[in-house]
Amino acid sequence: MLVRYKKSCEKIAMGLLSFMPEERELKKLKETMNIYQVNPNWHLFLWKEGEAFVGLVGIEADEGHFTLQHISVNPSFHGEGIGRAMVEKIQQLMPNQKIKGTAVTEAFLEKCSEAKFALI
Fold first, then answer.
1. How far apart are CA 90 and CA 86, in angstroms?
2. PANTHER family from the entry (predicted)?
């Protein structure tokens, strides 16, 4: 289940975000979390399986499209389709908008393109 990020889940979000290689350093993690907290166009969501948060997806919304900035899944849950499910849910939240990736997330989106995402 996709859940909008709340400040009370900051440590969980930082832990999940730290699975991304470019986000491992604490200083970088804090900078990234600050962007999501102060920029109204940046939205962070957590994925919950049962009682545990196991994934994270972050987007930057723009007119007519959104950019997948971050996507991370706890390694214990890799291969279960959680990443794809998170992107599908985001796409449902933002119908009629195309999705694009960053240098880091584009390969993931291409891998999942058979899920019929509206890619830019």
1. 6
2. PEPTIDYL-LYSINE N-ACETYLTRANSFERASE YJAB
Please give the class, per CATH, of domain 2-115: alpha beta
Instruction: Give, in degrees to the nearest 5, the angle at Cα 20 between 65 and 92.
Output: 30
CA atoms within a 13 Å half-sphere pointing along the CA-CB vector of 3: 18
Pairing of strands 2-4, 42-49: antiparallel
> Does residue 36 contact residue 42 with C-beta atoms inside 8 Å?
yes
Give the C-alpha separation, 64 to 97, whole Å: 5
**Domain residues of the chain, as ranges?**
2-115
The whole model's pTM is what?
A: 0.90
CA distances from 46 to 63, 96, 114 (A): 23, 22, 23
pLDDT of residue 120: 53
**CA distance linking residue 58 with residue 29, whole number of Å:** 13
As averages over each run of 10 residues, the pLDDT of the chain (120 residues) reads 95 96 94 97 97 97 93 95 93 90 92 61
